[in-house]
Amino acid sequence: MIFDINDFQMHVDTRGDGEPLLLLHGGTGIGADWTLVFTAGDPPAFTFRQAAIDVLALLDRLGISRVKAIGLSMGAKTLLHMATQQPDRIDAMVLVSATPYFPAPARDAMAQLSVDHFSDTDWAAQRKRHVHGDEQIRRLFDQMRALKDSHDDMAFTPPLLATITARTLIVHGDRDPLYPVELALEMYRAIPSSALWVVPNGGHGPIFGNQAAEFASVAMDFLSGSPRA
């Protein structure tokens, strides 16, 4: 977290529970230096439910009571949790490559996620995207691989989806290798104020490259309340 203190910005990490313990690093050091000393305890397992709680807390901190949103894959799953945890917070949303639960193809793909077989090119690409070191990259892939054993986090039944009040545009590729298009239909039939856009020959996240301009136009029109026919 960043705090404005005495005319400068102070970065603070808060970890664990119990009686407060203040850790101050040395000259030219960083707070993460203390992880080399206090190594006990693994980080909590990632869940989309907790991600939604965190984003809602961020909106509270920013003073935003109601929002429109676009989520892609992981972001779309987080939005499903936000829209069911606090329905009145989401006015309208676009879900790209979402899923109500993890089907077998997705779990099989998650089981294969690992940095162990990265090539030099793979590492270079990941280091460009994730700038906090190789340990961050390893943890991100470990978190995603662990989802193969998760069964209660993404478990959206039709009655639960029916509690969503946000206008919802579901965007899904008909060639998505992780989430068959039938899952998009399940969400479309269950979410009351929803529309469905199946992208022909689209894979997972079919909104980039040649599809980018059209997606941006359709999504913004939908969020503004004037969707195209």
Description:
With 229 residues, this protein is an alpha/beta fold. The chain folds into two domains: 2-36, no CATH class; 48-224, Alpha/Beta hydrolase fold, catalytic domain (Rossmann fold). The chain contains eight helices and six strands, in the order E-E-H-E-H-E-H-H-H-H-E-H-E-H. The strands form two sheets. The protein has a four-stranded parallel sheet with strand order 3-4-5-6, sandwiched between helices. A two-stranded antiparallel ribbon has the order 1-2. Helix 7 (181-190) links the parallel strand 5 (167-173) and strand 6. The N and C termini lie far apart (44 Å). The model has no long low-confidence stretch (mean pLDDT 90).
Any idea what the radius of gyration is? 20 Å
Q: H/E element string?
A: EEHEHEHHHHEHEH
CATH superfamily of the largest domain: Alpha/Beta hydrolase fold, catalytic domain
Strand content: 5-15%
Label the overall shape: globular
First-residue to last-residue Cα separation:
44 Å
Count of distinct strands: 6
Query: Number of helical segments?
Result: 8
Helix content: 25-40%
Query: What is the class of the largest domain in the CATH system?
Result: Alpha Beta
Main structural class? alpha/beta
Attribute tags:
229 residues, alpha/beta, Rossmann fold, 2 domains, 4-stranded parallel sheet, two-stranded antiparallel ribbon, 8 helices
Question: What can be said about this structure in brief?
Answer:
The chain has 229 residues and is α/β, with parallel strands linked by helices. Helix content is 37%, strand content 15%.
